[in-house]
Amino acid sequence: MNEEKLIEYYNKFNEDKRLNTKHGQVEFLTAMKYIHNYLKPNDKILDVGAGTGKYSITLYNEGYDVTAVELVKHNLRVLQKNEPNIKAYQGNATCLKFNDNSFDIVLLFGPMYHLISEEDKIKALKEAKRVVKKDGLIFISYCMNEYAVITHGFIDNYINESLKNNELDKSFKITPADTDLYSFVRLKDINNLNKVCKLKRIKIINQDGSAEYIKKVINKMDEETFNNYLNYHFSTCELEELLGAGRHILDIVTK
């Protein structure tokens, strides 16, 4: 992971603005729906890669014991400004400064987007596994390969250039360089990471469905239509045939 490049990127990128759009809310509301499905009273939550605190602050305001860890100082300052009372620390997902079995829920929503090497992904997953309690859950979000190929390759018309530069292999799997900001995976990659880290899947969800593909349409929807879209999405996001088709996937695992 190129930390310097990542910090420069998030110093300019407004993640809160994206998640507050209607199409961004699909991703956020889906994650919150499944988090609430498993949360218990008095659960301790660790939000690793918390960004500016969209999830941390929401859960803190609901009364949960939340600890946030964020790599980028700018994001951390925004989080602490928005909620000064939350426990928030600068840190790296691959080396967490917490004791074993400390949390009931661990959120790993940002790091797996940006950890490029399989080695670093495994480190982050093993750290999340280490600090979560024996019967606790880890919520992991990944960026999916096919979304990137369809949107950036074909819609944005970089496909020919990407193939010539060997940025895609023969199966159209993205082959990121060490200096890239984002890592894109397929289901088999996620399954392999779980196998290596000995994590047991509870559920896997197409986190944002078609929202990123039709975001201009969704952002113009009136509230009734948007609520119907959400109901459609929630009724289909666990369908096996749709897994991996969206921009993000949410994997819920335990030790």
Notes on the protein architecture:
Helices cover 45% and strands 20% of the residues. The chain is of the alpha/beta class. The protein has a single domain (3-254), classed as Rossmann fold. Strands 1, 2, 3, 4, 5, 6, 7 and 8 form an eight-stranded mixed β-sheet that branches. The protein starts with a helix and ends with a strand. 37% of the residues are buried.
Q: What does the secondary structure layout of this molecule look like, with pairings?
A:
Layout: H1 3-10, H2 15-20, H3 22-38, E1 44-48, H4 54-61, E2 65-70, H5 73-82, E3 87-90, E4 103-108, H6 111-114, H7 118-131, E5 132-144, H8 145-155, H9 159-164, E6 184-185, H10 187-197, E7 200-206, H11 215-219, H12 223-236, E8 248-254
Parallel strand pairs: 1-2, 1-4, 2-3, 4-5, 5-6
Antiparallel strand pairs: 5-8, 7-8
Descriptors:
single chain; 255 residues; alpha/beta; Rossmann fold; 8-stranded mixed β-sheet; 12 helices; 8 strands; globular
Number of helices: 12
Could you describe the largest sheet, including whether it forms a barrel? 8 strands, mixed
CATH architecture: 3-Layer(aba) Sandwich
CATH topological fold name: Rossmann fold
Radius of gyration: 18 Å
- Oligomer state equals single chain
Q: What is the residue-averaged pLDDT? A: 93
Helix percent reads: 40-55%
> What is the count of distinct domains?
1
The level-1 CATH class: Alpha Beta
Poorly predicted ranges (pLDDT <50, ≥5 residues)?
Answer: none
**Straight-line N-to-C gap:** 26 Å
Total DSSP E strands: 8
CATH level 4 superfamily: Vaccinia Virus protein VP39
Strand content: 15-25%
Structural class by helix and strand composition: alpha/beta
